[in-house]
Amino acid sequence: MIYVERHMAIGEPAVYEHDLGNGMALTAYAVDPALDEGALEALVRSKDGKGELDLPKTSKHMKYVGTVEGFGDLNFEISDENYEVPDGLKPFREALGEKLDAARRADGSKPFKNGDIAVIDGPHGKNIKLCKGGYYDFKATELQAVPGDLVPGQYPAGKSVRELMPELGITNEQRARYLCFTFSMLPDNGFEFGFVQRAKDLGIAPDCMAMSGGTPGFDPDFFKQGFDFERFYMKSLTKQMEHEYKLDSSEWELTGVDLIDDRDTLPCMVTEIKTPVSTKEIAKRIYGNQRAINEHPFIYSVSTENESLRAVLQRFPIFEPCTYIMDVIDRNR
To answer: Are residues 232 and 124 in the same domain?
Structure first.
């Protein structure tokens, strides 16, 4: 791989190194120029000690399925039927779609759109069956969604989709389980592990410490004989690395794909991204970039040569599915 130096012309990102004890540290790098070192320190310190690591609880709805070398080792099958929201949730789906269609930012842009998504139809593993759904289908079947807030005459007040499912005769397999990427970032040739502070208005896992990720859509060509799924997913991954981290395709390699089935949120393909570029250099590249800021206002790194990641998992409030994934990564390294 070629390591190309690229520096932003608008200044250096603020950096805060948080002492974890025993020579370990969690380092935060600003992506948003509005964050100085003092702001980073305050934000990181406010999170320390608020972790609730409960792997036995998380393991009840999450499962490590296995690891493959790349997307070419996965077998994809495409359903000839599109996904449909279960009948009991269709009134909520319709109302939610109208609400999201009407939502606009101050600048006139829309934060959400009902794009095509790849929904897992069946178990997650090396053999993956997909069908086409819509992003609004996913939002309408999220377990924490409360249908009564939008359709009070149709659903009881305060009850979540999780609570309503038994009453409506809906199984977990009938939900729009969106197949996504989670990025296992290994900067500095794997001597660092990188993750992010997700932005507040993201449609999935907003405003939390987590791993970054992506949600490839459903390509109409999936149905064509001989469709190259490996090429499609590698192309999607390449775009994400460029957009979120300013990493050229020559600067990183995919060293493995961990398959994680999450029955509560999103079944995912955890892509192990190894790059010689350090987290500090990545922060310089994306500093002030609005597209990157919209994903994560600041990013984190820990050393992989000590127990820093374990300390972070125990002390900081990481997005629950990511605690499981990061634990798997930590144990397998």
So the answer is: no
Beta pairing class for 192-197 and 209-210: antiparallel
Query: For the chain, what is the domain count?
Result: 2
Q: What is the DSSP string of 108-145?
A: S--S----EEEEE-S--SSEEEEEEEEHHHHHHT-TT-
Residue 94's CB: how many other CB atoms inside 10 A? 15
Q: Are 280 and 29 contacting, i.e. CB atoms less than 8 angstroms apart?
A: yes
Give yes or no for residue 7 having a pLDDT over 90: no
- The radius of gyration computed from the CA coordinates of the chain, to the nearest angstrom, equals 20
Q: Which amino acid makes up residue 316?
A: F
Structure confidence at residue 272 as a pLDDT band (50, 70, 90): very high
**What CA–CA distance (Å, rounded) separates 317 from 319?**
7
> What confidence score (pLDDT) does residue 65 get?
93
Range of the domain at 167: 74-174
Residues 6+ apart with CB under 8 A from 174: 86, 141
Amino acid at 158: G
CA–CA distance, 321 with 324 (Å, rounded to integer): 5
Tens digits of residue pLDDT in 9-55: 358 999 999 999 999 999 999 999 999 999 999 999 999 999 888 87
> Does residue 8 form part of some domain?
no
Same domain, 103 and 159: yes
The answer to whether residues 117 and 153 belong to one domain is yes
pLDDT at 229 over 60: yes
pTM of the model: 0.88
CB atoms within 10 A of CB 189: 13
- CA–CA–CA angle 44, 331, 74 (5° rounding): 105
The share of the chain scoring above pLDDT 90, in percent, equals 80
Q: Any idea what the CATH number is for the domain that residue 263 is in?
A: 3.90.79.10
* Residues 92 and 148 both lie in one domain: yes
User: In 10 A of CB 231, how many CB atoms?
Assistant: 11
The long-range contacts involving 226-232, CB below 8 angstroms and separated by at least 24 positions, are 229/71, 229/74, 229/76, 230/70, 230/71, 230/72
